[in-house]
């Protein structure tokens, strides 16, 4: 661990790049803005690489830590650090930012500088969320990241963009405001500390734990999103421009799940155990019910949005499968397999859902429709694209050897161990998920050429090929050789589960 | 009263140098203005600004950081007062810079009176801030109010302005009456109007509880009028809407600082022993203000009117900090609570000034630009100022990294520390409601195309610079709030 403040770079390099891009001003300088944005996003990715190469997989402790006082009046610190749980998301986020900048290269022609700047600034803010070890710092990044996405949906979105942008902002704000109160409550109870790691160690009575858990549940459940507070997501996805959908699916949804691991579980473990039945039930509803909802969608983006909710249901299921209590005073341990599977699912979903939205974007740019019925026989005119789309559709349906399989398989295994019927119910997704994804794929890609729009389609160009190839390498690589991903998580996950197996009630 | 107390003690004029200077200069400017031929009143404007600069220097030079009393304990000079006065001068200067072009474009308003009345109002606020006697407070309030009544009606051919001024005057006079009545009861209960002496008598338990209780009710009602909190808020929307925007800007910014000061002087310095009484009253006012302010703002299409309701809700939020100072007789958290309110007021004034400044930036002769729809497509017309306005709106909504977030945060932590969890939950619920209408302004600026008749923004360089600085300050203090926060805490620590 050198003295280089890598995490600060990961946060501020993209934000600074965003401000520089913003300074290029009007659309006359659009090529310059695009170039600078690409350079900025690449620089942002570059500074996160050493986080992986320099990461010590043997320790569950926080690494690359930085600490300096920020607001001493309330003992708020600029405190950064990553462990095996958060580190991968910084890299994933920075990678996705590069993809997003490339994805908007030709499509976005109005207010190019603002568009790219919004994504770069958001990238920095999102990195800040994953790297924060101070609850207020976390919260500030968490809230601030709403602003760029609100603007992205509202300015560059589809016809109902205003409605979607408001719904997105107000839903998320509603959740996080109660979370803020529980943070302040913890601050007061801990005698004036906002350090998340201090809170992990702090004993809290059961009633307070319940309230804290419920308040953070609302915040994170909205973000994940879990049934029944998921309704903003399909709207936001459908109306957002392609880049917005990619970031939303790949990163923003992970924030909620990450919040469970960083806040809810370690701070209120007793409440988590108490309410784990509820959480498992909500997750199963998301998996099964939302999966069925996805089946009947006529809009491709909506379909993938619902499939995202179902996939995130897997993630929350993986978190909350606690075994029976082992000894007096100790709570049942969660399952390593379940939590690691959930983390794998989160990373994989970042690649796969991002790629799915990009594929839909590629078609939308040409035909300007997201309706499944407007397509058919795309493979005849876009064979290269169809091949990529096939791969991602398979990954979305969790075909073995793709990244989607690893996480889902681990979670289902854990679920079967936990309770056969939970495992069984979760496993139905293998059928439903394959059904909605492949059925959509069949209707869009195969068959005779449906109309003159499809007949006039041109296959992907070099830039689009590059984006799809990059995502394909990630999705396949992770599916074939998941070890580099699981090994960094291992110590941290073990430590987390050991921690939440101990009651915090005094 | 003993003979020693009757003796004439020559006042220590040093504490009031700024006030005396301002008064003298205001009289001078009034006379000079008679000979100013220039329609634009540049001389008056420059002299007014120089007077305020002089006041800044005077207050800075005479500030000792200690608390001193003079004029037979009627007047106090302390760190909180000095800090609030400096902020007051700066706010008034900023207000005048923003207003200048607006006033010049309206021949009815472009008279020296705008400047002299502003200075008189400023003097009134200075007196309020430094008052250590109920009557001094009253004199300050009247000086401020009388100047404001006239300013609202400056545009005398406007029906809306005249109506607003009339309403303001009638309700304001009623409020002053209530305040005075409350003061007389305090006098009846304690036998003195000297705030320090009132505190002592109450501490010794010599006061008649019933009369004191009634007195506090009337005082709180009077303060409620001046702060503009529910149910004493009826004048706010009409006055904000009806007054010329330059005057709305003035009413919506600087007087909040003075109102905060008199709340601290009267309720905290004077009546802290009876805190259980007034805290309960203010709590009701606070929750009602947040509710009615936020829900009322949603329905507005006029930006000034929306900001009026938003002001009501913000003052309600600010009160939260004042009711959490003493809990069950325990004043441990008092500094924390009151300084969070002070921080809230200061940052609110900063943001509010910038917001009204934006309205005037977009207005021109014959066009007020005070409808929310007038901001349509601002991002296309001027991305820079759209960004400034966006930051101000997000700050008012309490979204980080802008200063409004830390203002709300510091008040909320005081509320939670005091154990009023339900109050904190109510406060964030109403903030969520509030976020909707601020977002709507952002929506109009960013998501909608500009109107066909959109006019180019032609402001002078100084206004553009100042407005940019104002917007950036909202972000900068949001990222580094520590200095201002601790300044508030230190000021209150020294003054209580």
Short description:
The complex is a heterodimer of chains A (506) and B (496). By secondary structure, chain A is mainly α.
Biggest β-sheet: strands ordered side by side in the sheet of chain A:
1-2
Mean pLDDT of chain A: 86
Order of helices and strands of chain B: HHHEEHHHHHHHHHHHHHHHHHH
Structural class of chain A: mainly alpha
What's the number of extended β-strand segments of chain B? 2
Number of domains of chain A: 1
Secondary-structure topology with pairs:
The complex is a heterodimer of chains A (about 500) and B (about 500).
Chain A: H1 6-23, H2 30-53, E1 63-71, E2 76-82, H3 87-103, H4 112-131, H5 135-144, H6 146-156, H7 161-189, H8 196-201, H9 206-223, H10 232-239, H11 242-267, H12 269-274, H13 276-295, H14 300-319, H15 336-367, H16 378-381, H17 383-396, H18 403-418, H19 420-445, H20 452-455, H21 462-480, H22 483-500
Antiparallel strand pairs in A: 1-2
Chain B: H1 3-6, H2 17-34, H3 42-62, E1 68-70, E2 75-77, H4 79-104, H5 112-130, H6 134-152, H7 159-190, H8 195-203, H9 209-227, H10 235-242, H11 245-252, H12 254-270, H13 275-298, H14 303-322, H15 334-362, H16 378-381, H17 383-397, H18 403-417, H19 421-447, H20 461-479, H21 482-495
Antiparallel strand pairs in B: 1-2
């Amino acid at each position: 661990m050198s003295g280089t403040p890598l995490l600060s770079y990961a946060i501020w390099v993209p934000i600074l790049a965003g401000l520089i891009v913003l300074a290029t001003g009007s659309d006359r300088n659009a090529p310059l803005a695009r170039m600078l944005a690409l350079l900025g996003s690449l620089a942002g990715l570059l500074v996160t690489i050493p986080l992986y190469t320099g990461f010590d997989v043997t320790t569950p402790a926080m690494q690359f830590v930085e600490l300096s006082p920020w607001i001493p009046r309330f003992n708020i610190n600029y405190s950064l650090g990553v462990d095996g749980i958060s580190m991968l998301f910084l890299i994933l986020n920075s990678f996705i930012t590069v993809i997003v900048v490339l994805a908007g290269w030709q499509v976005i022609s109005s207010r190019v500088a603002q568009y790219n700047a919004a994504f770069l600034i958001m990238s920095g803010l999102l990195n800040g969320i994953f790297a924060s070890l101070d609850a207020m710092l976390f919260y500030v990044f968490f809230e601030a990241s709403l602003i760029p996405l609100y603007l992205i949906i509202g300015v560059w979105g589809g016809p109902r963009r205003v409605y979607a942008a408001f719904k997105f902002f107000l839903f998320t704000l509603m959740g996080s405001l109660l979370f803020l109160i529980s943070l302040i409550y913890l601050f007061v109870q801990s005698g004036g500390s906002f350090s998340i790691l201090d809170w992990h160690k702090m004993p809290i009575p059961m009633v307070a734990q319940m309230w804290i858990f419920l308040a953070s549940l609302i915040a994170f459940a909205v973000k994940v999103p879990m049934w029944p507070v998921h309704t903003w997501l399909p709207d936001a996805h459908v109306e957002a421009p392609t880049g917005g959908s990619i970031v939303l699916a790949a990163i923003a949804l992970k924030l909620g799940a990450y919040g469970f691991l960083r806040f809810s579980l370690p701070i209120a473990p007793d409440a988590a155990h108490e309410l784990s039945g509820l959480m498992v039930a909500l997750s199963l509803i998301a998996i099964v019910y939302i999966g069925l909802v996805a089946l009947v969608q006529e809009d491709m983006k909506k379909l993938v949005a619902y499939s995202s909710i179902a996939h995130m249901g897997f993630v929350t299921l993986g978190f909350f499968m606690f075994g029976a209590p082992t000894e007096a005073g100790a709570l049942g341990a969660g399952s390593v397999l379940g939590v690691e599977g959930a983390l794998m699912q989160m990373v994989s979903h970042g690649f796969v859902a991002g790629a799915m939205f990009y594929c839909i974007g590629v078609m939308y740019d040409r035909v300007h429709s997201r309706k499944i019925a407007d397509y058919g026989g795309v493979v005849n005119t876009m064979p290269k694209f169809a091949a990529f789309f096939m791969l991602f559709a398979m990954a979305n349906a969790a075909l073995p050897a793709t990244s989607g399989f690893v996480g889902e398989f681990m979670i289902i295994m854990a679920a079967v161990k936990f309770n056969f019927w939970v495992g069984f119910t979760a496993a139905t997704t293998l059928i439903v998920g394959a059904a909605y994804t492949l059925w959509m794929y069949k209707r869009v890609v195969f068959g005779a050429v449906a109309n003159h729009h499809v007949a006039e389609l041109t296959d992907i160009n070099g830039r689009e090929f590059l984006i799809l190839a990059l995502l394909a390498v990630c999705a396949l690589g992770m599916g074939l050789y998941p070890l580099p991903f699981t090994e960094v998580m291992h110590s941290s996950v073990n430590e987390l589960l050991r921690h939440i197996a101990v009651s915090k009630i005094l | 009263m003993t003979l020693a107390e009757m003796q004439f003690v020559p006042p220590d004029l040093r504490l009031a140098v700024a006030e005396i200077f301002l008064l003298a200069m205001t009289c001078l400017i009034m006379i000079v203005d008679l000979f100013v031929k220039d329609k634009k009143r540049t001389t008056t404007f420059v002299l007014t600004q120089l007077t305020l600069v002089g006041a800044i220097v005077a207050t800075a030079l005479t500030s000792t950081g200690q608390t001193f009393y003079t004029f037979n304990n009627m007047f106090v000079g302390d760190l909180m007062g000095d800090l609030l006065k400096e902020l007051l001068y700066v706010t008034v200067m900023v207000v005048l810079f923003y207003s200048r072009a607006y006033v010049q474009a309206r021949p009815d308003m472009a008279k020296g009176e705008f400047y002299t009345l502003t200075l008189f109002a400023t003097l009134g606020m200075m007196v309020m801030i430094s008052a250590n006697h109920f009557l001094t407070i009253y004199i300050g309030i009247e000086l401020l109010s009388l100047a404001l009544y006239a300013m609202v009606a400056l545009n005398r051919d406007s029906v809306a302005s005249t109506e607003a001024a009339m309403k303001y005057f009638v309700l304001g006079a009623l409020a002053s009456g209530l305040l005075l009545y409350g003061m007389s009861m305090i006098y009846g209960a304690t036998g003195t109007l000297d705030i320090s002496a009132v505190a002592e008598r109450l501490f010794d338990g010599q006061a008649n509880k019933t009369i004191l209780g009634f007195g506090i009710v009337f005082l709180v009602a009077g303060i409620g009028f001046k702060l503009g909190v529910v149910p004493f808020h009826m004048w706010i929307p009409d006055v904000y809407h009806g007054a010329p925007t330059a005057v709305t800007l003035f009413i919506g910014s600087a007087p909040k600082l003075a109102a905060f000061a008199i709340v601290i002087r009267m309720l905290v310095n004077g009546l802290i022993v009876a805190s259980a009484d007034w805290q309960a009253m203010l709590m009701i006012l606070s929750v009602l203000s947040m509710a009615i302010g936020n829900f009322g703002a949603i329905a507005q299409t006029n930006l000034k009117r929306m900001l009026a309701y938003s002001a009501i809700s913000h003052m309600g939020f600010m009160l939260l900090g004042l009711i959490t100072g003493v809990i069950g007789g325990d004043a441990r958290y008092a500094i924390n609570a009151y300084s969070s309110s002070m921080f809230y007021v200061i940052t609110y004034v900063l943001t509010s000034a910038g917001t009204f400044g934006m309205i005037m930036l977009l207005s021109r002769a014959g066009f007020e630009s005070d409808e929310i729809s007038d901001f349509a497509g601002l991002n296309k017309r001027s991305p820079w100022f759209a960004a400034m306005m966006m930051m101000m709106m997000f700050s008012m909504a309490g979204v980080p990294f802008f200063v409004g977030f830390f203002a709300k945060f510091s008040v909320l932590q005081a509320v939670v520390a005091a154990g009023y969890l339900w109050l904190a939950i109510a406060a964030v619920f109403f903030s969520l409601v509030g976020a909707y209408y601020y977002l709507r302004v952002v929506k109009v600026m960013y998501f909608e195309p500009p109107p066909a008749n959109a006019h180019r923004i032609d402001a002078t360089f100084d206004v553009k610079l100042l407005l940019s600085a104002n917007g950036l300050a909202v972000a900068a203090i949001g990222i580094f709030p520590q200095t201002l926060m601790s300044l508030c805490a230190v000021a209150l620590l020294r003054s209580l």
